């Protein structure tokens, strides 16, 4: 609304206002990354945006250049001026850059953590938090959560993998 009347807000203005709102919640890219990997905090951010009439899905519909990018990359690009990466490119970077980490773990845990990268490329952040994740053949056959337990605390490893995936 403008001056008490419904009015169409120009896309650039809407996007800028939404990104200002994101920055208020996460001042830096590192703050945003930390927020994003924590499901509860990320959902709170999305709820806050929706509560202020900022719809990430509506914005995506108006920005064809975001194509196959995860919402993390859309927010990171427009709020923090990072390179806009499609999901496959982000997954490939994770799989390549984390090779030494994977090699430091037992093979089954490493296979599960590589599987997270493959699942991200297919479905983004939401795929990593789907109940189906642990039923994906690649992850299930490697031992799933049990394989992660053999390498340490599964929840901590999972969170670490997400931080690494998003560039942390």
From TrEMBL:
GO molecular function: DNA binding; endonuclease activity
Keyword terms, alphabetized: Endonuclease, Hydrolase, Nuclease
Highest rank taxon of the organism: Bacteria
Entry's Gene Ontology BP terms: DNA modification
Domain EcoEI R protein C-terminal: from-to ranges: 13-148
Protein name: Restriction endonuclease subunit R
């Amino acid at each position: 609304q403008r001056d008490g009347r419904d009015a169409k807000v120009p896309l650039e203005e809407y996007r800028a206002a939404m990104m200002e709102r994101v920055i208020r919640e996460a001042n830096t890219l590192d703050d945003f990354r930390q927020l994003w990997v924590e499901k509860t905090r990320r959902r709170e951010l999305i709820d806050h945006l929706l509560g202020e009439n900022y719809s990430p899905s509506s914005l995506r519909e108006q920005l064809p250049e975001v194509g196959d990018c995860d919402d993390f990359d859309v927010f990171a690009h427009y709020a923090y001026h990072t390179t806009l990466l499609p999901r496959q490119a982000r997954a490939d970077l994770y799989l390549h850059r984390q090779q030494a980490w994977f090699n430091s773990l037992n093979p089954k845990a490493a296979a599960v953590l590589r599987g997270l990268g493959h699942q991200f490329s297919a479905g983004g952040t939401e795929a990593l938090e789907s109940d189906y994740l642990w039923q994906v053949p690649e992850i299930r056959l490697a031992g799933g959560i049990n394989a992660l337990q053999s390498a340490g605390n599964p929840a901590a490893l999972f969170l670490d993998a997400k931080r690494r995936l998003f560039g942390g």
